[in-house]
């Protein structure tokens, strides 16, 4: 889940998705074999303020191979779908502070009391209301268990080899099997199937940019 609140001119919270941050979370999930579903919360604001943004987001992440559930704790959109995904599982809600993790848990089961807060007007970001990890049974455990987490500020990849990173992008893993050189970093190698797919629009440029950012970051520590 990865929607970041910002202020618009009317002073209401306005969502901005930080894709490289989301991609880091997704890569981490792939590294540890944790199935990830993306909850795109605050669709009420998107529908009102950014026509087409939800569709653009869906196009990027569904083509990468992820399940995306658009939802809103304000309108109730998608809440039933989220609830059914949580059933018979223990799920961790993670994402930036202020995206609505605690509000979502409350929407899934109004009888639980995760701490939520209004956005801080001074800092244009969510206040840190959740300061520790806490697990809530949803409807007595019938709908599974959800762990609320504090907002993450930094999210580093540790112990990852440069050549390994692309393996944690499902679309690159799939397409990269056809690269001439193995392993291929999908940057400068001739006969790179990933770069070809990028040119044909089969890989989202946003995802590729996130990938390059991660490569660069790994280089810094070498
Ligand atoms: N417009 C809108 N605001 C929401 C939605 N969900 C949560 N919020 C608001 O976003 C702010 C942060 O919510 P919170 O649940 O504390 O976020 P957390 O830090 O991720 O746990 C609060 O002011 C919520 O009322 C939503 O679907 N739409
Ligand atoms: Mg919270
Ligand atoms: Zn390649």
Overview of this structure, please?
It contains eight helices and seven strands. The chain has 222 residues and is of the alpha/beta class. The protein has two domains: 4-148, P-loop containing nucleotide triphosphate hydrolases (Rossmann fold, 3-Layer(aba) Sandwich), CATH 3.40.50; 162-220, Ribonucleotide Reductase Protein R1, domain 1. Guanosine-5'-diphosphate is lined by residues 5, 13, 41-42, 44-45, 72-74, 97-103, 116-119, 126, 129-130, 151.
Give a topology summary:
Blueprint lengths: L3 E4 L5 E4 L2 H14 L4 E4 L2 H7 L3 H12 L2 E4 L8 H8 L3 E4 L7 H8 L25 E4 L7 E4 L21 H7 L16 H7 L5 H16 L2
Parallel strand pairs: 3-4, 5-7
Antiparallel strand pairs: 1-2, 6-7
The structure holds guanosine-5'-diphosphate, magnesium ion (MG) and zinc ion (ZN).
């Amino acid at each position: 889940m990865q929607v970041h609140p910002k202020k618009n001119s009317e002073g209401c919270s306005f969502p901005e998705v930080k894709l490289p941050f989301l991609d880091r979370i997704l890569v981490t999930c792939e590294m540890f074999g944790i199935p990830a579903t993306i909850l795109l919360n605050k669709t009420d604001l998107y529908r009102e303020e950014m026509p087409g943004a939800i569709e653009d987001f869906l196009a990027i992440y569904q083509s990468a191979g992820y399940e995306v559930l658009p939802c809103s704790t304000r309108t109730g959109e998608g809440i039933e779908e989220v609830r059914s995904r949580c059933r018979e599982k223990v799920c961790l809600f993670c994402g930036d502070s202020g995206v609505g993790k605690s509000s979502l848990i409350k929407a899934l089961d109004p009888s639980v009391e995760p701490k939520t807060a209004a956005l801080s007007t001074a800092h244009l970001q969510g206040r840190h209301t959740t300061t520790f990890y806490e697990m809530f049974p949803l409807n007595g455990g019938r709908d599974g268990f959800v762990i609320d987490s504090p907002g993450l500020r930094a999210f580093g990849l540790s112990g990852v080899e440069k050549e390994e990173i692309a393996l944690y992008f499902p679309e690159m893993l799939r397409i990269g099997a056809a690269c001439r050189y193995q392993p291929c970093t999908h940057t400068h190698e001739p006969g790179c199937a990933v770069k070809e797919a990028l040119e044909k629009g089969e890989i989202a440029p946003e995802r590729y940019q996130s990938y390059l950012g991660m490569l660069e970051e790994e280089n810094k520590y070498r």
